Amino acid sequence: MQQTIFNISTFKYSTSYTQEDFEKWELPNDFHCVYILENGKDAYIGETLVAAIRAYQHISKFQALSFQRMHIITSDLMEETPAKHYERLLIRLMKVDGLFNVVNRTDGNKTHYQRKNEFELHFDRLWNQLIDKKLVKQKSFQLIINSNAYKYSPYITFTDGQTDALTYIVNALNSGETAPFSNKYKRRPILINGNAGTGKTVIATSLFHYLRNNSSYKNKKIAMVVANEQMRNILKNVFHETAEGLKKEDIISPIELTKRKYDIIICDEVHALRRGENLVFYKKHFEEGNKRLGLDNTHNELDWVLEQSEYQILFYDEKQIIKRSDIRDEYIKEKILNNNQIGFRPIELKTQMRNNAGDAYIDYIYDILYQRAPQKRTFENFDFKLFTSFTKMKEEILHKEDKHGLSKLCGGYAWKWVSKNDISKPDIIIDGEEIRWNRDKKMWIGNMDSKHEMGSVYTLRGLDLNYVGLVIGPDLNFDKKDNQIKVNKKSLFSNDVKKGATEDELKEYVLNTYALLLTRSIKGTYVYVCDEALREYLKSFISLV
Q1: Contact 52, 25 (CB under 8 A)
Q2: Which of 123, 156, 448, 475 could be a cystine partner for 492, CB 3.0 to 4.6 Å?
Q3: CATH number of the domain that 440 lies in?
Q4: Which of 319, 349, 379 is the last residue of a domain?
């Protein structure tokens, strides 16, 4: 999809002009266009096929306003229906924006068409061009981006991309884009897609704070659904300790959502919501949740979100499917489409802001694991190393923990949780070193004992660390004969991953798990590999210590 698809041509406008004067204007094309007439104070927004004729017609209509400029928005992709849609969005949003007194008597034509999602993503980019042209003022988020108080605080300083995303979400709410076209439809959810590290959680918490403190939304019943228990508890503390007007009760689990309805639900990491597959100990709660809502067990936690709220703002990453109970990308879109018959309002997060390696690092990790990386890459200001000694890697992580904090060991599914029933027994033995899986499920990151334990993907999903010491266990090996990375099911100890999974699904879950753990860190990632052949393969892509 093209990044810049609009041209905004600005012409002087005068009530003394003749039609011939207007016809001298030259535009990039003669397709449908949207235009803004303004005098520095007042503005009128419209759409037309022939801008010159419409400009002349407006002389008598707006004689008293003395418009001075006409900004004509053109695009090779502009058709009549999208133009009418953009006209409607601009009228509504520019009224809220407040830079101009918008004199349109109506909000334009209500539109309903197949490619609405595609053209809304284009509209997001148009809004940025309007900001650059000083035709709108960017939404003021000083309340939520004025200090760097805490990692997940709603006061954290945003990147430009995150500010844009927050603007797009609020624009979608304010403009009525999510409203149903007719009574037979439901409201369209806002679906925000972003890779690991693009700041989905930070945007979600800041959005919550903005809505709670905005006069249009502060009386709405709003909650933020977080599936991961570690992240849920961190955010509860943030809301309780640092965010004015917010309460820890605002952060809820999916099962709590079945107990009451809300006006607005913000859901972080939708891909971590559960469907009725391999639920193990959670199965009873899952069935009770469905029963409470009068649903059968073919329904899932995404259904709970859609059922229990009028507005839904959903954050997800299509790459982070790591177990069979996770809700897949195509299922999310299909479920939303079938639920309201009109689809969703898409918003994309592009800029990587977690690790110092930047955007390219995320793609590089997936390219390595899925064997499509053409050559080795290095990254400035990011420590990416492959260790041949687990002991040395552990010592380095302990050193980083003492110096920087938030530096932990982690691993995949390659060892049983033996210490769950007997704390005296280690779960993992590597190079004579005895390690146990993390025992604190609620606040492991801040636990002093955590530096001597191995964090699991269940604990670390969605969290940030300064340094990661990742052990790729014997659940993954490299077959030199076939030149393929393969899963060793004998060393895979996670029933919620392997039960009922096909070979291809199993490989996807395991590779995505290691990719997720490899993309948790801000300053550096250290890797130790149990399988020698796999270590040889990775030496081509990661600097060896």
Answers
A1: yes
A2: 475
A3: 3.40.50
A4: 349
- DSSP H helices in 293-327: 301-307
- DSSP conformation class of 274: B
Per-residue HEC secondary structure of 492-504 comes to CCCHHHHCCCCHH
Q: What's the CA gap between 91 and 113, in Å, rounded?
A: 19
Residues whose CB is less than 8 angstroms from the CB of residue 25 and which lie 6 or more positions away in sequence, other chains included: 9, 11, 51, 52, 55, 72
Looking at the fold, whether 512 and 375 belong to one and the same domain comes out as yes
Taking the C-alpha atoms of residue 186 and residue 311, their distance in angstroms, rounded to an integer, is 10
pTM comes to: 0.78
CATH of the domain at 167: 3.40.50.300
- Do residues 105 and 218 both lie within one domain? no
Q: Where are the alpha helices (DSSP H) in 213-347?
A: 229-241, 254-257, 283-292, 301-307, 329-340
Q: Residue 304 domain-assigned?
A: yes
Domain hosting 449: range is 360-544
Is residue 2 packed enough to be buried (19+ CB in 10 Å), middle (13-18) or exposed (0-12)? exposed
What are the pLDDT tens digits along the chain (545 aa)?
Answer: 445 589 999 999 998 999 999 999 999 888 999 999 999 999 999 999 999 999 999 998 999 999 999 999 999 888 888 899 999 999 988 988 889 999 998 888 777 766 777 788 888 889 989 988 999 986 555 434 333 233 455 445 566 777 888 889 999 998 888 888 777 778 889 999 988 878 888 889 888 988 888 888 878 999 999 998 888 988 888 887 765 678 899 999 999 999 999 999 999 999 999 998 888 888 999 999 999 999 999 999 999 999 999 999 999 988 888 888 888 877 787 777 666 556 788 998 877 666 788 878 999 999 999 999 889 999 988 999 999 999 999 999 999 998 888 899 999 999 999 988 888 899 999 989 999 998 876 677 777 777 889 999 888 887 888 899 999 999 999 999 999 999 999 999 988 888 888 999 999 999 999 999 999 998 999 999 999 999 999 999 999 98
* Cβ-contact 243, 196 below 8 angstroms: no
Looking at the structure, tell me whether residues 210 and 327 fall in a common domain: yes
Read off the CATH number of the domain in which 67 is found: 3.40.1440
Measured in degrees and rounded to the nearest 5, phi and psi for residue 404 equal -115, -20
